[in-house]
Target: Bulb-type lectin domain-containing protein
Amino acid sequence: MQKDGNLVVYSTGKRPLWSSGTGDTPGAFLAVQGDGNLVIYAKSGEAVWERKASFARLTADRELRPGDYLRSAQRRYRLVMQEDGNLVLQSGGAALWSSKTGGNAGAFAVMQNDGNFVVYSSGEKPLWGTRTAGNPGAFLQVQDDGNMVVYTAGGDPLWSSR
Model:
């Protein structure tokens, strides 16, 4: 846990491997709650990151299972893998974008290690994808402007929900 409030996992060579994206909250602290949820709280007591909210970004081989979601850094937007199999980008209760894969209970989304973000049926049949294969190290991020973007490992945009 860094002084700026960012939780960072480093390799043995001191290379950052993962970050909570909370580096703008000096004095924040990490807590493991009784329900097993891992939460970062600002000094004010406001939760600024939680494990249940999935990840700050979705990296290779990470999944969104039914009920999982990914939040934007400022928590205004959520990408939700719904129980009905639809992947939906939301603001409040309003849908901004959808994979239109509803009716596939048990479906899940995965950021593949080849750079393609795909929604699969519970039988692992592809239902929808970003068609961004060939970009190992790519990641998905929900941005504070309400846009969902797949970026190359170098930070260049490959696909956008807009």
Q: What stands out?
A: The longest strand covers residues 77-81. Residues 6 and 23 are 4 Å apart (CA to CA). The chain has a mean pLDDT of 90.
